[in-house]
Amino acid sequence: MGVQSAITPFAAQMLRFTWIQVQCCYFAVAVVAGIALSTLLRGYWDAPIGRYDALFVYVVALQIVFVATGLETRRELVVICMFHIVGLALECFKVAAGSWTYPEPGVLVVAGVPLYAGFMYAAVGSYICQAFRRFDLTVTRYRISVVGTLAVLAYANFYTHHWIPDLRVLILAAFAVATARMKVWFTVGGHRYWMPLPVSFVLIGFFLWVAENIATYFGAWEYPDQEGVWRMVHLGKFSSWILLVSLSFVLVSALMTHRTSRDDVVAVHAQ
């Protein structure tokens, strides 16, 4: 009886935690679902526009619905638009460098990159914004000057590793050291919990890598080794997603920060 009474509250909290996570992922899930559906429907109907262009119309309409229904606030929309711009710039560079391609034709394309691609980065921003609001996140011992500098280096490394040695391992190690004592606090069912901030980066990065495999399977984009036949995305991309999550977290905390009376505590609230 004692074991059962202990397990039941734990199971209830896990269900609450999972449900909040699902709500945080609404936009990301809708984007991936749109990509999958557009692939599954291909060949069954004659679309008046290309698939990539149709996806852009879809994600724009999706964004409008999210703001109109209150699923996202206007301030969150501004942050998400920033993610779209930053992500689209990176996509244009990576496609030009041959890191991956968008093999299908389209009209709404810039430098070989369909405009819908920026919304995949926006989906990451949406998740983090939603997580801050729905979990009432607070980060202790947070130093945005330190993590911000590392985030800039991480973003720069996505470009510079094409000409100089890849520094991602060093940057990841620096992130681990800099954030080792930082805790992210979150609320589930009226109770406060915490986990080390770098652990949250790793967990989110892993699920983004899983989502990347799903997206490439349905033709969202294509790596060189996926031409002709789909292959699982190399596990090395996992580290790139961890860096992207770190950068995304810094962007959200910089653009949506409310500092409490304690200098070492940062909370982000939707306004």
Automatic annotation (TrEMBL):
| One Pfam entry name | DUF817
Highest taxon of the lineage: Bacteria
Q: Which UniProt keywords apply?
A: Membrane, Transmembrane, Transmembrane helix
Query: Which chain regions cross the lipid bilayer?
Result: 24-45, 51-71, 78-100, 106-129, 141-161, 167-186, 193-218, 238-256
Q: Which organism is it from?
A: Gordonia spumicola
- What protein am I looking at? DUF817 domain-containing protein
